[in-house]
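Re: the 198-residue chain
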Amino acid sequence: MSSFSTDLFGTPLLPGLDVAERLVTEDEERALIAHIDAQALSPFRFQGWEGKRLTTSFGWSYDFEKGEAAAAPPMPEWLLTIRARAASFAGLQADDLVQALLLRYDPGAGIGWHRDRPLFEHVVGISLGVPAVMRFRRRLEKGFARVSAPLAPRSIYHLSGEARHGWEHSIAEMEETRWSITFRSFSARGARELLGAA
């Protein structure tokens, strides 16, 4: 696995952003895509609006219509295997990654500017199918600071710290179908509210 989260001079593209290529083989990628397509995927919904990307969750889900998280079906064995690899890349324990969000971006689907919900902390994503660009922006006194990170097929990224909390991110509308698996850990707030952890 080769990392490309720095520029030509070794400077981080964005503190808290780690990206690496070739997390999985081409055969594994095809198997993961088949697993995602075999799920009962539903259009993303947000406050009455229906998005073009299709999703389903395991472990925990977040209902944007109700604004709350809820338990989801447990992760199947094929997801547990790739979760372990994703956790190792992020320096986490596999059990830390409590949610798996499966997504299919058909042509015309993307994701707008956002930060992940504060119930979650680490965000670890696996990009499948075709190349994409994850865009980041942070509001300045005038305009925005912007950074872009290419996501090759079979690559993985990890958002933590400044990249996770200080910047919004988005993915432009896709011209070809792309799939992704996003794992998340609970934040301290999420653990308190959903698990009753001290």
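The domain at 17-195 is CATH 2.60.120.590 (Jelly Rolls).
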